[in-house]
């Protein structure tokens, strides 16, 4: 039952983040990377702020509250790297590589948190990682692979993978001490404030009129849902399973991009999608 719930919350987080990742592209192209992060953060903070009201008494645990806030500041940088990556490249390329952050998170959770991962679930996680990588690699010619095209945004995807891997692991600690809702709110508040400061420093101006436009608010709602599902899942259930599914956004991101942006699926991407489905099924096996 606990494994089932871990998988359920992991899938909710995965799908929510996939929608947010996919629709970050048109927002970033229209508004710019930094304004997108700041404006959608307003919606995210409003939603999570309301949800976290019953948990405000936990602010007495000031050390972990400050840790969550500072973690949000640090989390701004991989979020910026990802948003800029999808702005200059394909969602179907950047999202799979960024999804490899799973490996970092799961290994850290297994090592330091002693989160139990069964051999079959390790195999499933490896399948998900292979599917993530397979989506962005041209097997016929490595020279044509997106990994080797420096102008394709791939360096930003790798920065995102490392940053998110560390971020999602570190988020477990404040979540377990001040609760999932307050942790989620403080993290997103730290990220949004950092984006706002960055806007002021860069003197880009704040297009505040877009803050409550439908695309920005829907993007924020998706992020708030994904964040809430993740922090609740890792606080109550298997952190490794929740984290691995949360960051396995390649398949839904690729499919959404193919549907909405007409990004054509190659045979490799279709095989990778099937592989990821198998991985998700296996990771939920008792």
Rough outline? globular
Average of the residue pLDDT scores: 75
How large a portion of the residues is in β-strands, by DSSP E? under 5%
> Quaternary state, please?
single chain
Structural class: mainly alpha
Major sheet details: none
Radius of gyration: 18 Å
The total of helices stands at 14
Give the uncertain stretches in residue-range form.
Answer: 141-145
What attributes does this structure have?
286 residues, globular
How would you describe what is shown here?
The structure is a single chain. The protein is mainly alpha-helical. It has one domain (2-283). The chain is built from 14 helices and no strands. The protein has helices at 2-22, 24-31, 33-51, 62-88, 91-98, 101-112, 119-136, 154-170, 172-178, 180-202, 214-236, 239-246, 250-260, 267-283. The protein is globular. The model is unreliable at 141-145 (pLDDT under 50).
List the helices and strands and how they pair.
Layout (H helix, E strand, L loop, with lengths): L1 H21 L1 H8 L1 H19 L10 H27 L2 H8 L2 H12 L6 H18 L17 H17 L1 H7 L1 H23 L11 H23 L2 H8 L3 H11 L6 H17 L3
Helix pairs in contact: 1-11, 1-12, 1-13, 2-3, 2-4, 3-4, 3-10, 3-11, 4-5, 4-8, 4-9, 4-10, 5-7, 5-8, 5-13, 6-8, 6-12, 7-14, 9-10, 10-11, 11-12
Summarize the structure.
Helices cover 77% and strands 0% of the residues.
């Amino acid at each position: 039952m606990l494994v089932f719930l871990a998988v359920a919350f992991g899938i909710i987080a995965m799908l929510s983040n996939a929608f947010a990742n996919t629709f970050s592209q048109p927002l970033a192209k229209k508004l710019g990377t930094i304004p997108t992060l700041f404006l959608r953060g307003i919606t995210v903070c409003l939603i999570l702020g309301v949800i976290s009201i019953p948990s405000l008494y936990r602010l007495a645990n000031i050390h972990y509250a400050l840790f969550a806030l500072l973690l949000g500041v640090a989390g701004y940088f991989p979020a910026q790297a990802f948003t800029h990556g999808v702005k200059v490249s394909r969602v179907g390329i950047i999202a799979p590589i960024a999804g490899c952050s799973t490996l970092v998170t799961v290994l850290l959770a297994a090592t330091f948190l002693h989160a139990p991962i069964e051999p079959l679930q390790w195999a499933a996680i490896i399948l998900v990682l292979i599917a993530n990588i397979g989506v962005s690699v041209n097997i016929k010619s490595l020279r044509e692979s997106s990994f080797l095209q420096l102008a394709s945004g791939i360096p930003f995807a790798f920065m995102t993978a490392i940053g998110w891997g560390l971020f999602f692991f570190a988020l477990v600690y404040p979540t377990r001490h001040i609760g999932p809702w307050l942790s989620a709110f403080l993290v997103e508040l730290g990220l949004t404030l950092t984006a706002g400061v960055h806007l002021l420093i860069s003197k880009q101006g704040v297009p505040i009129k877009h803050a409550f436009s439908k695309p920005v608010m829907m993007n924020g709602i998706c992020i708030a849902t994904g964040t809430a599902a993740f922090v609740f899942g890792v606080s109550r259930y298997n952190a490794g399973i929740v984290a691995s599914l949360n960051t396995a956004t390649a398949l839904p991101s690729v499919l959404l991009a193919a549907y909405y942006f007409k990004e054509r699926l190659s045979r490799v991407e279709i095989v990778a999608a099937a592989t990821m489905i198998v991985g998700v099924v296996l990771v939920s096996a008792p």
